[in-house]
Specification:
Blueprint: H1 2-30, H2 35-39, E1 48-50, E2 53-55, E3 74-76, H3 87-91, E4 98-100, E5 121-123, E6 149-151, E7 173-175, E8 183-184, E9 197-199, E10 207-208, E11 221-223, E12 238-239, E13 248-250, E14 262-263, E15 272-274, E16 282-283, E17 296-298, E18 306-307, E19 320-322, E20 344-346, E21 368-370, E22 392-394, H4 406-416, H5 435-442, H6 446-450, E23 454-456, H7 465-474, E24 478-480, E25 483-485, E26 496-499, E27 502-505, H8 507-513
Parallel strand pairs: 2-3, 3-4, 4-5, 5-6, 6-7, 7-9, 8-10, 9-11, 11-13, 12-14, 13-15, 15-17, 16-18, 17-19, 19-20, 20-21, 21-22, 22-23
Antiparallel strand pairs: 1-2, 24-25, 26-27
Length: about 525
């Protein structure tokens, strides 16, 4: 009897134990956060999960990281009020591979990730890292040899210790932008041999060692914009000859005075170079002699007065050149001749009072030409004679007058080979009028219409609105209110439209499509 009773009790206990074990196992694979953490939330928000991936964003002070399952592999805990990460708490989550703690209040990583040897991605943007002792980041990643991506954008980091990355020699992407970093030494990134992308924009860098990136031979993208870098005194020219795979270099908004302050002789794969908003006074002839693959070059908003005729001689692959907002007053015919693939050229807001004939003779693929804000008064007959692909021509805010536009309209007529006539005698097109309808009514061939330029002439001292309309009609233009427009129906990406009396055209769409800007 007693034996039968004990057997029955034992079987019942085993059944309950098995059910409890299965329930606990099921709960553990989901999320080990008690219901008490979610019942406190006013909107009954709960963490979302999919297998070992857990999302706990926007919990604010109610979120406690120690309640997260130890088996978690990917954790997103953004927009909380996390102030402190403890090494003991994080150490229990040894399988953690991805951690995103953006927009929290974390101040230190000291001894936090020592046991997270599987960590591959760490995103800690918009925190308070760097507050307090300057060595809080010393050796914090000495055990993370599998770390591939590290982002600590928009923190308060002032010093990057030499031993900060420790064993993280697999790191390929590093983002330290929008901090307070002042100095970059030769040893700062010395052990990051596989680094391909480094972002240091919007810091306070005043000292940049000439050999700072010598060991980063796989570096492809380097962003140093919005700093205080100047290569004078103890700051020797930046040597990038070892970075042979570098494709993008952004150094806008610094204090450079010459392109020669960058040694780019070994960067044959360089495709994008941004030196805008510096203090460069001239373009040297040999600075870019080996950069045959350069695709986009921006030197706008500098103090450039002279351009060496050989400055662009090697840049036969260049598609975009921006020299706007400088002090250039003259340019020789041979300066642009070698740029046979150039599609976008901006010489806006300089001091040109005239342009040499055949200046753009070698630029047969030129699509957009911006000459705004100069002192041009006369248009030479052969200025754009050979540019049969030109779609956008901006001549706003110059000093053209009606009597000085004869050569312009004549060369344009000869180039485009169409009969102007008096088909738009009223000089106006309704906003909603369809270009195809206009073509049928005006008996203009589609072939002719496809080659019409998108021209802008506002801001010139025409004698009257009527004179402006006459000039615009002579180049098959519709004069509309305060501006004028041409709708190119052949390629919709170039299509312009007039809305509420303002010209809205799609040049920026074309530029973005061709990746001609940064």
């Amino acid at each position: 009897m007693h034996f039968f009773y004990l057997t029955t009790v034992l079987v019942a206990f085993l059944q309950v134990s098995e059910a409890t074990s299965n329930h606990a196992k099921h709960q553990q694979t989901r999320l080990d956060i008690p219901s008490s953490i979610t019942t406190k939330l006013e909107n009954t928000q709960e963490c979302r999960y999919r297998g070992a991936y857990i999302v706990c964003n926007g919990f604010k002070s109610h979120f406690k990281i120690h309640l997260v399952s130890p088996k978690v592999e990917m954790l997103s805990a953004t927009d909380n009020d996390i102030t402190n990460l403890k090494g003991r708490t994080m150490g229990r989550r040894k399988n953690l591979k991805f951690l995103n703690i953006t927009n929290n209040l974390v101040r230190s990583f000291r001894r936090v990730f020592e046991r997270n040897t599987q960590l591959k991605w760490l995103i800690a943007d918009h925190n308070r890292l760097g507050v307090g002792h300057k060595m809080e980041l010393s050796g914090v990643f000495k055990h993370n040899d599998k770390l591939h991506l590290l982002s600590m954008n928009h923190n308060m980091i002032r010093v990057v210790p030499d031993n900060m990355f420790g064993a993280a020699n697999q790191l390929s992407t590093l983002n330290l932008a929008e901090n307070n970093i002042a100095r970059i030494h030769q040893t700062t990134f010395a052990n990051l041999h596989k680094l391909t992308k480094l972002d240091l924009h919007t810091n306070k860098i005043t000292y940049l060692d000439s050999q700072a990136f010598r060991t980063n031979k796989n570096l492809r993208n380097l962003d140093l914009c919005d700093n205080l870098i100047m290569f004078t005194g103890n700051n020797k020219p930046l040597d990038l000859t070892e970075n042979k795979q570098l494709t993008t270099l952004a150094m806008s908004s610094n204090k450079m005075t010459s392109i020669s302050e960058l040694n780019l002789s070994g960067n044959r794969e360089l495709r994008r170079l941004d030196l805008s908003f510096n203090q460069i006074g001239s373009l040297d002839g040999l600075a870019l002699r080996n950069n045959f693959q350069l695709y986009c070059f921006n030197a706008s908003y500098n103090f450039i007065q002279t351009i060496d005729p050989l400055a662009f001689r090697s840049l036969q692959n260049l598609h975009s050149l921006d020299l706007s907002h400088n002090k250039i007053s003259s340019i020789t015919r041979s300066t642009l001749t070698s740029l046979r693939n150039l599609q976008l050229l901006s010489l806006a807001y300089n001091n040109f009072d005239h342009l040499p004939e055949d200046l753009f003779y070698g630029n047969g693929r030129l699509v957009a030409l911006d000459l705004r804000g100069n002192q041009l008064t006369r248009w030479q007959p052969n200025t754009i004679y050979s540019n049969i692909n030109l779609k956008f021509l901006d001549l706003r805010d110059n000093r053209f007058e009606v009597e000085n536009m004869d050569y312009f309209t004549e060369s344009l007529n000869q180039q485009n080979e169409f009969d102007i006539g008096d088909w738009a005698s009223d000089g106006h097109v309704d906003d909603g009028e369809d270009p195809e309808t206009i073509l049928r009514h005006r008996s203009l061939s589609k072939k002719v219409f496809d080659r019409i330029l998108c021209l802008r002439l506002s801001g010139n001292p025409f004698a009257s609105q009527a004179h402006s309309a006459v000039v615009e009609r002579r180049v098959t233009f519709w004069a509309g209110r305060n501006d004028c427009e041409v709708r190119n129906h052949g390629e919709r990406i170039f299509r312009c439209g007039c809305k509420n009396g303002k010209l809205a055209w799609s040049l920026h769409r074309w530029v973005a499509h061709k990746q001609l800007i940064f």
